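[job 0412] stage=complex_fold ligand=FE2/S2 (inorganic) cluster status=START
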Amino acid sequence: MEATDSVADTNPPMAMLAELTHRCPLACPYCSNPLELKQQASELPTGDWVRVLGEAAALGVLHVHFSGGEPASRRDLVELTKAANNVDLYTNLITSGVGLTERRMNELAQAGLEHVQLSIQGTDAAEADHIAGYKGGHSRKMDVARWVRSHDLPLTINAVCHRQNIDHLQRTIDLSVELGAHRLEVATVQFHGWAAKNRAALMPTKLQDAEARRIVDAAREQLKGILVIDYVPADYHATYPKACMGGWGRIGLNVDPTGRVLPCHAAESIEGMEFDNVRDKSLADIWYQSKAFNVFRGFDWMEEPCRSCDRKAIDFGGCRCQAMAMTGNAGATDPVCSKSPLHAKLLDTVIELDAVSSPPPLVYRGR
Ligand code: SF4
Ligand code: FES
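[job 0412] stage=complex_fold status=DONE, emitting structure tokens
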């Protein structure tokens, strides 16, 4: 893989995903974190994270998203929120809610936390706790939503939808309104990391996908001014791929729990790719100079049909990790694209998955 020399055309990143830890009390079968999770002993210490937050702000990052695993598993979450706030980064906490207490939420609000994204795995305790593989999780999430709103913090509900819960989409929308959320992100499951093991159990059917689009369109109309709904449809059923990450190395970066800096959370699934670490290099150096970031910047790396396609500045050839998973070549056109020579193979897979009459049991981590 040869890097493209497009440093001069590169703008500073707008967002940093700070994956503070891979530790998580839940065991969602669609987890996009790698099969091999990073252990606590290898996590970046507080002092390094504080330095990285400063470097991010100096580099031009505007938003930091504290994520994981479950970021509340880190004892220094309040301290890191304060540190981000001190360098004027907009702070967003992406949490399952499990591991938060009312007192901790108060401390986070006082530390300057500006936004919370709370995941839900279903619309009632039985469904949600089954999917999350954690008893009692749903009821804690309902508490967390209340605490967040009591501080007048904006709340986004994150709902990953899939074959086993997509039929409850209308209820998910109603629940988000009841919880006082300003935004609902409904993202259809992506098959990276652990999720790939559960593809047959989780891929929505074509019919479910069409119904979900109808429900979202109607709800957007009905809930104007009350709830914003972001919907990421199942890309297996799409004609063109999405601009994954807004384009490789264009607007955001991920720092993993050990300090490695990745262009996207699934990038380590790309064979042969190596990632620089904030323990050795500055964030600016990594963003502008590292091979991992430059390899898919610009358009020179593209193969046909992307190279001569008039959509290349819209979707940037789709998702590199999906191209890797489905073709063994991260530089290939994402097979979701109807112009890809491998699109027909993807359609065969869709027909195969649609025909599964009773989905196989979910496979959970560590069981
Ligand atoms: Fe996008 Fe490439 Fe397909 Fe064109 S050929 S629509 S650039 S993925
Ligand atoms: Fe890595 Fe799409 S998930 S580029």
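The first helix runs from residue 46 to 59.
[job 0412] exit 0
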